[in-house]
Structure formats: C-alpha cells, structure tokens
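#structure-requests
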Amino acid sequence: MTLRAHFDGKVLVPDEPVDLPVNCALEVELKPVRKSAGAEKALTRLLALARQFPARGGVADGAAQHDHYLYGLPKRP
C-alpha cells in the first residue's frame, strides 16, 4: 500500500482517508515526493479538461466593469 502524507512538525498526517486497523503495528518506509510532480499533474489535467470546452469571446472591458458583469450593477463611465 502506498500512503501519501505530510509531516506537520510533530506527526505524519495522511493526505487522504485511510482504512487501517487501529492499534496495529506498521512498518513505514519514507521517501520524499517532489512537490512539483503533483502540482504539474493537476495542472495538466485541468488544461486537458479546459480544452474540452469551446473558446468563447469575452468582453473587452471585463476587468474594468466586473461589477456590472458579476452583479448586474450599471456600467461605470
């Protein structure tokens, strides 16, 4: 079984729920994981998901008029 966890300064904390017997002795082998590998995987999956949706033209003044587009307020002059 491979268990991903992080060290909080005192104990190892599992990153996901685990199904282990309580009070059972375990042998643990530690191996650091490159932080960027997980983030890179997540970004790659997100990019692949975004490519499934058609590109739509946005509004040119979206940043300046965000209150109008988000909340329906009148446009600023």
